[in-house]
Amino acid sequence: MTNSKLPRCLLRESDSLRQHLLTKWKGKRQMAILKDANDNGIHFTAASLSRYIKSGNVKGSLTAEHLIYLADKYGIEIKLKVKHKRTKANGT
Question: Whole-angstrom Cα distance, residue 37 to residue 68?
Fold first, then answer.
């Protein structure tokens, strides 16, 4: 699902997040989703939303910032786990 021309973004690659959003959007018009986001200061185009809905992580679809807003708006919890491996090379 990763497009090699895009920088790697785990959030954008998350099929699980995409499926949850699609479920929450059942029966909603794309323009209503777009208008609500724009009214709250999150700007993206109808084309970007459409690309995300149809294909997920493709060039010109939603950014990680957009997805974080949408997940929060529609009550989808996102967890980020960061681990730091201790090695001799980094001395920590």
Answer: 12
Length of the chain equals 92
| CA 34 remoteness from chain centre | 14
Whole-prediction pTM value? 0.74
Per-residue pLDDT of the chain (92 residues; tens, 9 = 90+): 444 454 456 777 788 899 999 999 999 999 999 999 999 999 999 999 999 999 887 887 899 899 999 999 999 998 877 777 777 765 65
Helices (H), the chain: 10-13, 15-24, 30-39, 46-55, 64-73
Give the CB-side neighbour count of residue 57, counting CA atoms within 13 A. 18
Which residue is associated with the tokens 């786990």? 81
State the first-to-last Cα distance of the chain, in angstroms, to the nearest integer. 35
CA distance 75 to 18: 13
